Amino acid sequence: MTIKKITVIFLFLNLIFLHLSYSQKYSEVDKIVLKYPKQFDSTEDLAKKIQKNFTSEHDKARAIYSWIAFNIKYDYASFLNPQRTQGFSYSTEAEKQRKIQQINDKLIQKTFNSQKAVCEGFTALYQNLAELTGLKCEIIRGDSKTRLADIGRKETSSNHAWNIVLIDKKWRLVDVTWGQGYYDGSKGKMVNDFDPVYFDTDPDYFFAKHFPDSGSYLGNKLSKDDFLNGPLIYNKTIQHDYKIKSPDYGIIEAKSGNKITVEIKNVSKSDVVFYLNKKNQAVKIQNAKEKRGGLEFQITYDKTIGEYLTIFVDSYSIVSFKIISK
């Protein structure tokens, strides 16, 4: 076979892969919303457009998520230099609520018109559009887990916000801030990259990365210890349902020669599984065996492994653990 034919086949296969990836990433709702104008005169106009195109509660909630994620950018400069919270005085509870509503309305309009915000703006706009389309929606504030340094942190902090929306009589978890993209530390900037995994997220995954200030969800108490000391998971973990069966704790105490057993559901021998050593060199897993719908393997702890151990599947980070040397 000639080089030219091989190149053509390679490009053809890549086109197929890109098409499949596109199809998996965007739902039919997303594809319709992608054709919407990037700006509307008002949130009411956008809500009317969504109500015209979609009738089910699920589709309306998804359309709101998609439009915000496609068009509102994370304001990283404001995150680094937050504005001082302005206080206000009031004489009655009614006056207090009215002034809070005025501040919230101002935030919604600022987010909608400037098309940039931090999480407070994303969640306020999502709630506003949800209510305009007849959906019940609330804003939840709490802690987030996004960095290696978050594994084993001592305390939670209120640093993030997300939504819950009632769809077909069931509350669903939504984090449109994270759905619009992520911060690339190597480039020092935000990357706009629509991700559907934070719409109607499985609570097990969601609360591995979020912890509400109330410490509970729908009346059920959540484990602060599990949140603080659990492993760090990533978007691809959620997307592919890579459940981390073992270790179930984010902090691993080990001495040289100890074997760390890792088991991940929905991974197979056909996947390329590896970790990075201290020199950022890929170390491929060699001793894996398929077990209970997943893959189990062992990593021998030695001086080449650093403070954190991150497992990759097909070039994507899946889970990280903190290693404490005995």
TrEMBL record:
Residues 111-178 form the Transglutaminase-like domain. InterPro entries: CAP/Cytokinesis_protein, Papain-like_cys_pep_sf, Transglutaminase-like. It comes from the Bacteria. This is Transglutaminase. It comes from Flavobacterium psychroterrae.
